[in-house]
Structure formats: structure tokens, C-alpha cells
TrEMBL record:
CDD domains per UniProt: USP-like
Organism phylogeny: Bacteria, Pseudomonadati, Bacteroidota, Flavobacteriia, Flavobacteriales
Protein name: Universal stress protein
PANTHER family: STRESS RESPONSE PROTEIN NHAX, UNIVERSAL STRESS PROTEIN UP12
Family statement: Belongs to the universal stress protein A family.
Organism: Oceanihabitans sediminis
Length: 278
């Protein structure tokens, strides 16, 4: 089945790194890649004072840049079943993503995000935070700056087993099947036993992922889930982190922090955030 992948770009190297990762991740899959860019004024208060004669050249320049990015991606692709298109819009990044989702039924949004230096620190850009908070239709893949592609043979999936698993688990299953990956299921809890509800959800997860290589891991000696995940990634050479974005979840708490703060979370590997299906 053909995948429809949206790659928003601001023409930075960070955005290009994300595009390259997407091309290689789906190198053997029929895909249509949509490169999108939203034209907007940084200072919207001055918008009405700028004559159209000055705006038009800026718009044309950015349209040309968008086409250049698409053509650059075409050259990098090694699959004749890859197709490419551009989406140029006016307004915010979120507006452009919503437009693409509505028109093209996007399966995955791929964006770059700049990581901070330090063993357990990250700075999520304001755009990444906004998309995490607002995009609820398609999974979001955040690719760290200068991240070099490595096939995701080891997928990390933290879970508390407190929620009923639904369609959203299909995204993890498809990714594992695509690259013949193992899945490390990580449970972080101070308690040494699971409740009846947690055990029932765990059994459900096993049934959904039957036939795949599953490894179950338990971490109890961490003050924060962020540190537990960070250390697990380092110790086990995880290639990609996947999480389901439930309401009132760990992800929601993470992105509520001011973006200028260091968030005790490591983003050296891509992070796939899967929206909860209602």
C-alpha cells in the first residue's frame, strides 16, 4: 500500500536531515512525499504595511526553494515507486499540516528537531512542540539534527499498560515488519507487580504484535521516566523511540515545559509520536 508522507521544510539543514531519514526509512516502500512550506511574516503586525510588490518576490523565491528541495530529494531516492510533490501555503506551519492532512490523507509527518548538547538534555523547537500538541491524525516522526540514518532494527516502545490498545499500535507493527525489527517494550514503575487491568492490556499487546520479536523490560529505580528511557536507549542501542500520545500522558507533560528549558530527555535517535485513535 502506498504511503503518503508529509515533510514540512524551512529550507534548513535540520529539515533536510529529516527528509533524508524519511527517504531511507521508506526506501523500499511505494510512497508519495509531499514537501510543504508555509509562507508567513514573522511580524504579522506589519503585514498590512508591506506593499504587495515587495511580498511577491519573496513568495516566488520560497516557491523556487521548495521545488529545489523536492528535486534534491528525487535525486536521493533509489525507488522508482517514489513520487514527489510540493505544497506551498500561506499561514502557519500548523495550517499547512492541517491542509495536507485534509487533502492528501497523510500517513506520517516527518520533521527535524534540534537537540541540545549534554547526555540527557534536549531542546524541542517551538514548531515541534506545537505539532506534538496539535497533530492528532497522523503519526509524527521527529528527527534530531544531523541524525545519520540507521535502519531501525531495535524499536523502543515504553508503556505503562494502563490504557486499552487500539488501532494506534498498527503503526509500530508496520514499522517493525518493514525492517524486520525487534521491539523492546519498556515498563517504568516503582511497583514490582502489575494490576489486573495492566496484565489484561499486556496480553492484548502481545496478541497485536504476535509473530514479531518482543522483549519485555522493567525499570523501577528511576526518579523520572525521561531518564529511564534515555538510559535504556544508550544501554541497548535503540534505533528509534515510539510512544502513543494519550491525553494527560508523559509526552503531554514533557511538552508543557518551556521550550528554552532543558527537559531531561535525550533525542539522539528519531522519536515517533503516535496519536491515540478514538
Amino acid at each position: 500500500m502506498r504511503k503518503h508522507i508529509l515533510v514540512p521544510t524551512d529550507f534548513s539543514e535540520n529539515a533536510w536531515s529529516a527528509a533524508l531519514y524519511a527517504l531511507k526509512l521508506y526506501a523500499n516502500t511505494p510512497c508519495t512525499f509531499y514537501f510543504s512550506h508555509a509562507f508567513t511574516f514573522l511580524n504579522t503586525g506589519t503585514r498590512t504595511q508591506v506593499p504587495q510588490s515587495q511580498i511577491d518576490p519573496l513568495v516566488e523565491k520560497e516557491k523556487e526553494q521548495l521545488i529545489e528541495v523536492m528535486n534534491r530529494a528525487k535525486k536521493e531516492s533509489t525507488n522508482s515507486d517514489h513520487e514527489f510533490d510540493t505544497i506551498f501555503s500561506f499561514g502557519s506551519l500548523m495550517d499547512s499540516i492541517k491542509l495536507a492532512n485534509k487533502k492528501y490523507k497523510i500517513d506520517l509527518v516527518v520533521m527535524g528537531t534540534k537537540g541540545a548538547t549534554g547526555a540527557k538534555k534536549i531542546l524541542l523547537g517551538s514548531n515541534a512542540v506545537a505539532v506534538i500538541n496539535k497533530v492528532r491524525r497522523a503519526p509524527l516522526l521527529l528527527v534530531p539534527s544531523k541524525c545519520k540514518y540507521k535502519a531501525p532494527k531495535k524499536i523502543l516502545f515504553p508503556s505503562a499498560f494502563t490504557r486499552f490498545f487500539g488501532e494506534e499500535i498498527q503503526s509500530i507493527k508496520e514499522l517493525a515488519e518493514l525492517h524486520n525489527s525487534s521491539i523492546d517494550v519498556l515498563h517504568i514503575n516503582a511497583k514490582e507487580t502489575l494490576s489486573d487491568i495492566q496484565n489484561a492490556n499486556l496480553d492484548m499487546l502481545k496478541n497485536y504484535l504476535e509473530g514479531l520479536e518482543l522483549n519485555f523490560n522493567w525499570r523501577t529505580d528511576y526518579k523520572t521516566k525521561a531518564y529511564a528511557i534515555t538510559d535504556f536507549i544508550k544501554e541497548n542501542n535503540s534505533n528509534i523511540l515510539t510512544m502513543i500520545n494519550y491525553e494527560h500522558s508523559f509526552i503531554e507533560n514533557l511538552v508543557k515545559e518551556p521550550v528554552i528549558k532543558r527537559l531531561g530527555f535525550n533525542s539522539k535517535i528519531p522519536f515517533m509520536i503516535i496519536p491515540r485513535k478514538k
